[in-house]
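The following record pairs a protein chain with its ligand, uridine-5'-diphosphate.
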Amino acid sequence: MEKLHVAIFPLSAGMGHFLPLVEFAKRLCHFHGFSITLIISKWMWKSQQPALLERLASSALDIRITEIPHITEDENEQNVKIATRISMFMLKAKPHIEGVLQSLCSSSPVSAFITDLFCTELLDVTAELKMPSYIFVPSSAAYVCFMLHLPKLVSEIKVSFKDADFEVEIPGLPPIPARDLSNSVQDRSDFAFKWILQHASRCREASGILINTFAELEEEAMETLSTPATPPIYSIGPLMFTDSDTPDESRCLKWLDEQPPLSVLFVAFGSRAVLSREQIRDLAIGLEASGHRFLWVLRGYKSGDSSSLETDISQLLPEGFEIRNKDRGLVLLNWAPQIPVLSHPSTGGFLSHCGWNSTLESVSHGVPMITWPLFAEQKMNRVLLVKQIQVAVDLRIESNGFVRREEVQRAVRELMEGEEGRMAREKMKELKDKAKIALMEGGSTMKATANAATDLSQKPSLTP
Ligand code: UDP
């Protein structure tokens, strides 16, 4: 019997968008016998991505990789908010993706197309080709509730959210300060707002919405989304990229082997965030003052040059920091193998920017968190972590975005030795078990994935 063929365009920018959708492609092949064409752009490519795709291409899975031509940007296009930058990129990438889809359809039927929430521009292409399209959301079900409600919210509230000094009610979420809604929608005069509003309106056109979450983690949001007015929803997470052949990162894992169980705080801010030099200094001093062990992934710009990353750790840290902390701290430049670190028995806490993938990875490994949201929808994730599921210690961020050293020290101690930390750890343990069950045969995620697989194969494309 001929295999079902699905085409996928993952957003290349940001590992948090790219990796989980590639992981879903692997699951469709592995568990449901699909044949996948992965349409790739190398725009904003991270250094880890080429090797990772090479390994995927040479694996036993039926995944073919097709690359679209390189998309160039001028300087003006680079100096805008990321949501705008992605949308500008998509306008240029659209004809190339259309070309690939047309050529795929002429050789073998494509039963469905999957792309990222920020690529709704492609819904025009698939409508033309009469190809069912699914939107992949690399964030929470709560975020989907927010996106679906956004057009109504915008019509009801007449000012920019950044100027709204009140909480808003969004079905599926606890009351949330308007200023904690996603960064991209804070300022109505910014292009990013227009683009996000467009994605929010258009995602209802999709044949279904695939969310990287699991039902037991977000019961209220999933309940809200289960109405006939919403496209079919599939909670297919946690999708964590498994790549057994990652390069040798044994240094930090060996270091973790030598630390007592649950004693180390992991400090990392995802794949993109860069802290200022002043913030790095206060974080360093706060960590040191907490007296706890830490493994810190540090990323900072070269002095006086906010476009090049510093390659010498000692240039970023306070004088003498490394020597003073050599017995209880390890600082890595730019990158660490986050999933192995979170699954290590010595890791007892995670100070995180609350990126959704980091959140899911922490939940799946039962590691309680300290919340330090920086951008995108991370403040919304904080609300979920602190208020709704109560698995994190909150960190006080000043109105100018700065976190003071005393606050770092307080939050680390609270998480690692306080009552709040103990309760968060217990709740995390429960969620870890629930995540594991969701991924077992008969579990909620495996059922949702099977439902998605059935629906993805429902309507083979008509010849355009
Ligand atoms: N990541 C990693 N090592 C690092 C930093 C990040 O492996 O040092 C991975 C992390 O495991 C996660 C992804 O990169 O899967 C980051 O995604 P997230 O949504 O948390 O944040 P973003 O990078 O989108 O800000």
